[in-house]
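pls design
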C-alpha cells in the first residue's frame, strides 16, 4: 500500500478515549495506530470522613513544634494568612476549627486578624472573603486584603543571601503569632506550594515577589515541579523568617477531587516538608519514556487559564522535545488575570522564531519586548515561551474566548475536540506513542 493509502487508512479508523473536563465527559477519537503508554492518575486517597476530627488531631499533634498549651495565647495578637480566591483550597471547610483551636488556647476573636495573601492578584470582595472562609466565620474578626504596591503597608526587613530584598505586610510584624492556612500542591516554580509561600510571595512587596520568582530560573531549568527544596522555596523561606515572629502552618493535602485527605500542621519548614512528601506520594507518576503525544486535562485546576495551564507544565517531562501536547482546559472564568500582549506572532511563526532564537535567548527576548511586564509576568512569559519552543501546545477549552490562542500566540486553539484530534492525527507520527493525564492539575510526570 502506498504512503497515501496507509495514511488514509490510519486517519479512517479511531479508538475512543473518554475523559472528564470540569465534570463533563469529553470523548476523543484517537487514531487506532496510536499506542497509549500509560494513563496517569493520582494515587487514590480517600477524603477524610470527618474533616473536623482529622484537623483537630493534627493541631493537637503538630509536626516539628509543641502544641498550643491552654492559656498560651492569652493577650496575643494573631495574624491569619489565608490564600485567595484564585486558589482551590476549601478553607471554609476548616477555618472555624482553626479559630476554635486558637480560642481554646486563650486567644480572643478581637485579637485575630485575617490577611488574604494576594501576592499581586486583585483584592478580594466582601462576598469572596465570606465564601472563602464560610458564612459567619468572620464575625468579630477583622480582615484585610494585602497590597504589594503600597510601601506604607509594608515593612523592609533586609535582604536574603540570594539577593532578594525583603518587604512584608505590616500586619505580620505587628502580630505575636502568624498562622498560615493553605494547601500543598504541585507547583511549577516551587516544586510544591504551601508552607511559607503564604508570606512570600503571598504577603510580600512587589520587589520581593519579582526577585523571588526568578531565583534559580535559567533557560535550561524553568520547571521545578516535584522538587521539595527548589531555589525559590529556600529563598522565600529565608525571607519569611525575617519577620521574626513565631509561625504555625495549617496545610491541607487534597486529592484530585479537592477532597481534604490530611493536614500538615506545625513548624512552617518541618510540617511543609512532611506535607510535600505526602503530596508527592499522591501526585507523582513515573514515565519510562517520553511520548510523541501527551493528552492532559486541567482537572481540578479549572478556574482560569493561569490555573489550567499548570497541567501542561506538570506533564512536560512525559512528552518528547518537539512532541505534541493536547490540552483540555476548563477555564471556568476564561483567561482570568493573564496578561494579553498588544501584539504577538501567530503560533506557528512564533515557534519557528523561538527555535531559531534558541533557549538561551528567550529570557532576554522577554525582557526586551515586555519591558513593562508586571511582576509575575516575566516568569510566566519566559515559562510559556520556553514551553512553546519545546513543544507544540494545542488547546481545547469551552471556557476561553475563541480568539485566546490567536491573541496569546503560545498555543494553537481549537473550537472542538474533534477538530483538534483530526489535526493531531495528521500532525503526529503514524504510530504515535501517547501518555494520558486525566488530572493534570494535581499530577506531575517524573522520568523513571
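designed seq:
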Amino acid at each position: 500500500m502506498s504512503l497515501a493509502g496507509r495514511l488514509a487508512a490510519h486517519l479512517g479508523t479511531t479508538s475512543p478515549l473518554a475523559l472528564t473536563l470540569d465534570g463533563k465527559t469529553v470523548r476523543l477519537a484517537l487514531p487506532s495506530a496510536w499506542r497509549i503508554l500509560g494513563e496517569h492518575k493520582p494515587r487514590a486517597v480517600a477524603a477524610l470522613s470527618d474533616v473536623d476530627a482529622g484537623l483537630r488531631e493534627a493541631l493537637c499533634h503538630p509536626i516539628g513544634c509543641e502544641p498550643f498549651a491552654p492559656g498560651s495565647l492569652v493577650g496575643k495578637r494573631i495574624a491569619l494568612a489565608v490564600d485567595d480566591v484564585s486558589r482551590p483550597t476549601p478553607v471554609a471547610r476548616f477555618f472555624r476549627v482553626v479559630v476554635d483551636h486558637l480560642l481554646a488556647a486563650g486567644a480572643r476573636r478581637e485579637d485575630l486578624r485575617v490577611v488574604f495573601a494576594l501576592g499581586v492578584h486583585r483584592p478580594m470582595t466582601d462576598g469572596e472573603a465570606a465564601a472563602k472562609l464560610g458564612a459567619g466565620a468572620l464575625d468579630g474578626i477583622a480582615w484585610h486584603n494585602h497590597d504589594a504596591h503600597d510601601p506604607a503597608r509594608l515593612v523592609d526587613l533586609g535582604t536574603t543571601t540570594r539577593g532578594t530584598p525583603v518587604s512584608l505586610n505590616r500586619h505580620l510584624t505587628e502580630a505575636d503569632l502568624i498562622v498560615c492556612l493553605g494547601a500543598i500542591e504541585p507547583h511549577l516554580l516551587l516544586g510544591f506550594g504551601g508552607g511559607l509561600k503564604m508570606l512570600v510571595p503571598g504577603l510580600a512587596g512587589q520587589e520581593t515577589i519579582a526577585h523571588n520568582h526568578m531565583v534559580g530560573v535559567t533557560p535550561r531549568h524553568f520547571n521545578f515541579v516535584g522538587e521539595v527544596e527548589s531555589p525559590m522555596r529556600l529563598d522565600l523561606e529565608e525571607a519569611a523568617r525575617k519577620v521574626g515572629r513565631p509561625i504555625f502552618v495549617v496545610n491541607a493535602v487534597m486529592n484530585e477531587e479537592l477532597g481534604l485527605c490530611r493536614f500538615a500542621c506545625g513548624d512552617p519548614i518541618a510540617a511543609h516538608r512532611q506535607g510535600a512528601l505526602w503530596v508527592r506520594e499522591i501526585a507523582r507518576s513515573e514515565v519510562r519514556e517520553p511520548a510523541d503525544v501527551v493528552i492532559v486535562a486541567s482537572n481540578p485546576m479549572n478556574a482560569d487559564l493561569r490555573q489550567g495551564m499548570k497541567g501542561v507544565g506538570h506533564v512536560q517531562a512525559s512528552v518528547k522535545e518537539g512532541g505534541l501536547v493536547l490540552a483540555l482546559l476548563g477555564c471556568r472564568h476564561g483567561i482570568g488575570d493573564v496578561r494579553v500582549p498588544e501584539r504577538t506572532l501567530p503560533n506557528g511563526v512564533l515557534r519557528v522564531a523561538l527555535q531559531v532564537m534558541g533557549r538561551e535567548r528567550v529570557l532576554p527576548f522577554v525582557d526586551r519586548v515586555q519591558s513593562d511586564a508586571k511582576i509575575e509576568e516575566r516568569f510566566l512569559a519566559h515559562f510559556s515561551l520556553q514551553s512553546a519552543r519545546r513543544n507544540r501546545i494545542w488547546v481545547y477549552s469551552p471556557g476561553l474566548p475563541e480568539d485566546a490562542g490567536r491573541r496569546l500566540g503560545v498555543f494553537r486553539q481549537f473550537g472542538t475536540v474533534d477538530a483538534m484530534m483530526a489535526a493531531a492525527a495528521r500532525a503526529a507520527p503514524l504510530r504515535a506513542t501517547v501518555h494520558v493525564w486525566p488530572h493534570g492539575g494535581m499530577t506531575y510526570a517524573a522520568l523513571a
